[in-house]
Amino acid sequence: LLFWNVRGLNGRAHRNALRELVVAVKPSIVCLQETKLDVISPFDILQCIGTGFDYTFLPAMVYGPPTDALKPAFLAELQDLRARCSVPWLIAGDFNMIYHAEDKNNNRINRRLMGQFRRFLNDASLKELHLQGCLFTWSNERLHPMLERIDRAFFTADWEALHPNCDLHSLSSLCSDHAPLLLRLDSVFSAKKRFLFRSFWLRLLGFLEVVESAWHCPLRDASAFARLDWLLRNTARFLKSWSTRSVGSIRTQLELAKEVVQRLEMARDCRSLTPLEEKLRQELKLKSLGLSSLQRTIVRQESQLLWLNEGDAPTKFFHCHANHRWHKNFIHTFFNASFTYEVGNGVSTLFWTDSWLDGRRLAATMGELVEAVSVRRRNSRSVASALQDHAWISDLFGPFTVPVIVQFLQLKQRLQGTVLDPASLDRVVWKWCPSGQYSCSSAYQAFFLGQSALLGAKELWKVRAPNEYRLFFWLAIQDRCWTFDRLRHHGIRSCDRCALCSQLPETIDHLLLQCVSSREVWFRSLLRSGWAHLSPSHEDKLSGWWLCSRKLVAKF
């Protein structure tokens, strides 16, 4: 909760200062006094506090019926709930159902219910949140257990746009036969910073001289492309160095100015400020207004892509797709979750960073405790040296908050039964192969865990037909042709009736199969080959009709 007497929000500089404060402290509620505004429009609110407060979403926690007879009604109820939900939707819980054969460790599966569950996910436009950790979430706790993945989380595309950095982890089952799932909405994925050109540099003194000195460097490379690449990299390096010396960090300067002003105002409560202190306070307040305006200029430059995304409704789909691909680029996160360590003598296994204790990294379960250890110690302390005379305790340097102390006691208790084997070496196990050995094929397949297979995709690409025909049919069975239902989903208005019959809503199944005109074309075409009995009906779906019909036609 942030409350502040702003003493007027009529000036742009004051609004920029408020915006920077909201960005810095990230409050859930903002309360302002003395805004001196007679009328406060939605535009004024967005300009002062941003768009981070203006959204809602609907979480739904479910428990699916354990008996097969009740599961179709359960899916129908979820379908009805999805139809009535107009806000971003998250649905998670124990579904007591699977939609992949790989979600169970034996062959005793109900393919009819799997198909119904898969159709519900496709009709509701739900995506599964990839689970990191265990492959299965339920066990019958027997000697040779039956394992299933029936605990899941699904979300809509607009929910993913609100929480692009979410991730799902499985935890230890402890006293249950189900593994608890932890959903984080603000997971941080580190990435190498790229060079960003600031447009306000052009108005600063010395900019042209820096570019000229970086561009006129002697080069011996004969290739023109190599010279151009080196000059661009050299210019970026010179501009970074010049910006650090001449401009510095705007955010750091702004925070420092705020801190000094606050300390002077705290001192003024106890005594009168000297003339120099009062002059410094006034100068810093004026400087903070200028820095806030400059920071807003930088943010506006960086938000151009965000504006395009929010200002053009059809781009939301492509933004979500690009965001999905961006998450998959973090190879190191995937490998950290894919390797476990079987500790022998503990010499080659790192105590703080490797997944050696119960198959998990300490940072995943005791994040506050690991943050109390320096980076150098995390990357050098082995399990053997850490357990010798409890040397890992000396790695902690604070601050020792209550969560750190609690996690310290938990870790100390868990380490009491740990015994190393000096005669055996440490072993790294790749969890995606039964042998424990890494392979490129298993890593590639692991990237696509959780996706739903497209019905008829394998059969389609085996058909002897021109590529453009197969590509169109592939888009059609995925319902990715721009018919009315897809245009409406992306916020584009168009005629909602079929262009052939002008009676029913236009969908890809209706346009290609169910329409009276389409069925007449199919009947006349198939009649010439003696296959009139394969003509589609008004209830057939494209992929199902094609797969059934192709089995009734003899191969040539």
3D shape: globular
Q: Which structural category fits the helices and strands?
A: alpha/beta
In the predicted model, the low-confidence regions spanning at least 5 consecutive residues are none
Q: Which fold does the CATH topology of the largest domain refer to?
A: Deoxyribonuclease I, Chain A
Q: Provide a count of the helices.
A: 24
C-alpha termini separation: 73 Å
Description:
This protein is of the alpha/beta class and 556 residues long. It folds into five domains: 48 residues; 127 residues, Deoxyribonuclease I, Chain A (4-Layer Sandwich), CATH 3.60.10; 106 residues, no CATH class; 116 residues, no CATH class; 95 residues, no CATH class. It is 45% helix and 9% strand. Helix 3 links the parallel strand 3 and strand 4. The chain is globular. The mean pLDDT is 81. It holds the Pfam family zf-RVT. This is Reverse transcriptase zinc-binding domain-containing protein. GO terms for molecular function: catalytic activity. It comes from Dichanthelium oligosanthes.
Q: Concise description?
A:
Helix content is 45%, strand content 9%. The chain contains 24 helices and 13 strands. Helix 1 packs across helix 9 (275-302), helix 3 (71-84) packs parallel to helix 4 (111-123) and helix 6 (207-215) runs antiparallel to helix 7 (224-246).
